Structures are given as C-alpha cells and as structure tokens.
C-alpha cells in the first residue's frame, strides 16, 4: 500500500545538512517526496512510497543520526500524489 506522510520538523534543522540527511534516507528506502526549508525555521518533509518504508523513515527523523537538534516532529497523512523522485528545495 502506498502512503504519503508530511512531517514538520522543528528545532535547529536549517543550515546543518538536515535536508540532505533526509534525502539520503529517502533514496536508500526507495521513497519519493521533498524536503524544504520553511520561513519559520522548520523543515517540511514529504515522504511517499510503501507504507512500511514511510513509517520506518519517519521514525529516524529525530533519531541520533539526524544532524542539528530536532525538538519536535508533527506528522500528518495526505493522499498519495504519485511522486516518483525525492528532491530538496
């Protein structure tokens, strides 16, 4: 089953390579989506792919390997959009 989840990641997550960390995580899991900096200092991460792979990737967003300091991760599910690649903005 395909799942799309959008996570809003708070903390010191801009300017520390966080989006590139997420990109590597997503690509190694075969996920599509996007990671982008938001004007308020958060990073928005959209992950789309197999349900289990999305769940596993979400669990790592605030893990010890994540660069910077993550203070919160808010996740919401959305209908899949048919994304085929992962990008950073």
TrEMBL record:
One of its GO terms (molecular function) is acylphosphatase activity. It catalyses: an acyl phosphate + H2O = a carboxylate + phosphate + H(+). Signal peptide: none annotated. Its EC number is 3.6.1.7. SUPFAM superfamilies: Acylphosphatase/BLUF domain-like. It holds the Pfam family Acylphosphatase. Keywords: Hydrolase. Residues 4-89 form the Acylphosphatase-like domain. InterPro entries: Acylphosphatase (IPR020456), Acylphosphatase-like_dom (IPR001792), Acylphosphatase-like_dom_sf (IPR036046). It is an enzyme of class 3 (hydrolase). The active site is at residues 19, 37. Belongs to the acylphosphatase family. This is acylphosphatase. The lineage of its organism: Bacteria, Bacillati, Actinomycetota, Actinomycetes, Geodermatophilales.
